[in-house]
Specification:
Length: about 230
């Protein structure tokens, strides 16, 4: 279809070159036909390219890179502390195997979260502190307390960083820890069809986690709740 329209457009241009060798300008009908064909071509190109999906993939690529950077930084803190580090910082008993198990999220306190997963609670910090790496950010670990300092200048947050009562419209990063073995998990919700379950470049199914439509990485991928977060 695209090739046919382009060929037809070229035919009109060639015809006009022959007709207008001794004349100047196009007739109104010729201009209208040309504009119509160009509009159709542009519409087809936009549909084929799918700009919305491109933006989604760009945000997903950032999510994957962000979680990878945070995993590496957390691993560095863990190794520097001999494999035993304070995974929930100044908080008390908030890891998954403790009494006040919590899901730490990049959505700030200014955002009202949907109901937390059964048996869990949300942990949020004020927007002004959300990206800090000294233990007061949305991940409560003190990344600066190791030799050489933090490998992160700021804690990344999700490109959209929003919550919603509706499943499928919740985009924020989440973190949880397990005290017994000092393990941690980081999650993100991907939004592009290509990176999602069954997509051509599926990321959320092959990450080794236990939720098929969530991107999960960390020193363990089965700490965060399997439902209710996103």
């Amino acid at each position: 279809m695209l090739c046919f329209l382009f060929a037809f457009y070229q035919m009109i241009l060639n015809k006009n070159r022959l007709i207008h060798d001794d004349h100047h300008g196009f007739t109104l009908i010729e201009l209208l036909v040309t504009i119509t064909i160009l509009a159709i071509l542009i519409t087809i190109i936009v549909v084929l390219i799918d700009p919305a999906e491109i933006f989604k993939k760009t945000r997903d690529a950032r999510r994957i890179a962000d979680l990878s950077g945070m995993r590496d930084a957390l691993t560095f803190v863990s190794v520097a502390s001999g494999g035993v580090f304070d995974a929930d910082g100044g908080n008390i008993s908030t890891c998954s195997d403790e009494g006040s198990r919590s899901v730490y999220v990049s959505a700030p306190q200014e955002i009202t979260m949907h109901s937390a997963p059964s048996g869990w609670m949300w942990k949020q910090v004020a927007k002004v502190f959300i990206a800090t790496v000294g233990g007061t950010g949305w991940i409560p670990v003190n990344f600066t307390g190791v030799t050489g300092g933090s490998s992160l200048f700021n804690l990344p947050i999700d490109p959209r960083n929003v919550d919603s009562p509706s499943v499928g419209s919740r985009f924020f990063y989440s973190y949880a820890c397990r005290r017994a073995d000092s393990k941690f998990e980081l999650n993100a919700k991907l939004e592009s069809a290509d990176f999602g379950p069954g997509g051509g470049d599926d990321k959320s199914v092959i990450d080794g986690g236990d939720v098929s439509d969530v991107y999960e990485i960390g020193s363990s991928a089965n700490i965060l709740p399997t439902s209710g977060v996103y």
